[in-house]
Design a protein that fits this description.
The chain has about 475 residues and is of the alpha+beta class. It contains 9 helices and 18 strands. About 30% of the residues lie in helices and about 20% in strands. It has a 5-stranded mixed beta sheet with strand order 1-3-10-5-8. A 5-stranded mixed beta sheet has the order 2-4-9-6-7, with no helix packed on it. Strands 13, 14, 16, 17 and 18 form a 5-stranded antiparallel beta sheet that branches. Helix 5 runs antiparallel to helix 7.
Amino acid sequence: MNIMLNFNGIHYFTLSLLWCVINVSMAQVSANILKDGDKFILSVVNTKEYGDVVDSIQTVMPLSTVQIDILDIPPNAGFVLFQAHSHIYNITLSYSVVLMPHTYVNGTNLGLVGMMDSSSGSATFFLRNSNMFEVPVLIASQVYGKDAPIPGGCNMEFPVEVSPFLVVKYNSKVVVADSQPASCDETEFVSYDLYRTYLPEKDFTSTTYFTALRNMMSVDNITMKAKKVTAVKAGPPLRRVYSAYPGTASVHSVIATLGFESAAYVPAITYACDPATDSCEVLTDFNYLENDYNYWVVYICLMLSVPLLLIPFNQKANIISCAVLGAYAVIIPIDHYIGSNLKYIIVNIIRRATSLEFKSAIIAPPYQLRDLILTLVWAGLVGMGYVVQWQQQLGKPPFPPPPWQVRGERFRRNRFPQTTATERTPLLIDARIPWSSTGDDNVFDSPPSTSNWQSFLRKLQPAAPANPMINHPQTA
């Protein structure tokens, strides 16, 4: 009886524990889903210093408008930067529930600034999903001090008065990233640093997308995990033109610095293509080369210098060039289908020749695992091709005539025999080497022949009898 009671107790305890786990899981799932009219609270009470990020990933239901409240903002804060990021599909971020001109922005990487005063300890924004399906959204907030520059605070072009976000556009050749100056009252004292990093090639998952954005939100993370972009000589100082690498996402951000205070703009990501429509299947940063004349002179000089340096080694140079180009032709189709970037060795040159705006593009292609593997395959094919061709050419003239030319010359000689003497006519044209000898000596034996039928007939002939006149060892 006691054993039965203990068993029933254990069974009841197990079921209760399982029921609690299911309820907690369902509560967590429901907590990550935002419906129309819901309010979501994002508290910054646990942040240790200005610029720290508080974020959360929520799923916004179709045709829904959600209120986002940022609470526990310190009384001495200057402004709060709120940002919302969606993967692939556009969302809308606004100051009010009703969309009014110059109070909202639409896109995938959005941000708005809420100015603070000593009496307010909160800020409210509204997030709208106008799609017919649910969209996962990364929402984040950062609080900055009163001395920090306000990202996009001196906006003159974007639709919102204070625009802390980047506008990224692309075509098949270039990616253009634009942002607006910070803090209008002190614009001349603000310095800007632009940064960029890449996502793994052909990785269109939302997990990788949101992780990359989290790594580009704070000033410390940006400087540690991204690469600083060089300044440009001409054009707007906050505009950068990059070479496009469709299918490899690039993350862009800006850091504005005023004195000892810095603030980060809202990061932006582009794949240089549209994953939703399956359009992604397909010497850097030298300002001196932005001039077309300089670029093409350097390119032609480099192109001509290689054959000039290899002229003394014509046979080896021919083998090396064939091996390098042949191996590159082998890996290019593989490069296209796995989504690496070695093809842009040629594509970027074509872009420079055909696109006027490409001359100011920053060419810094991502070099990741797939590129490394293809580079090793390329090097292996080059080495193997060189060894095979070198072995085949051992003992032969450096440039033997091609087989089709040899066959054509032989055909012409047989078809049209010469009737007049030339410098190539043999002196003893009527002399013939006997095919076989019937004498007792082997002076006029026929030379060895590679003809199969001649070898067969020679084997059928009887051996010549021994000549008694030939000296033999004397026997006692």
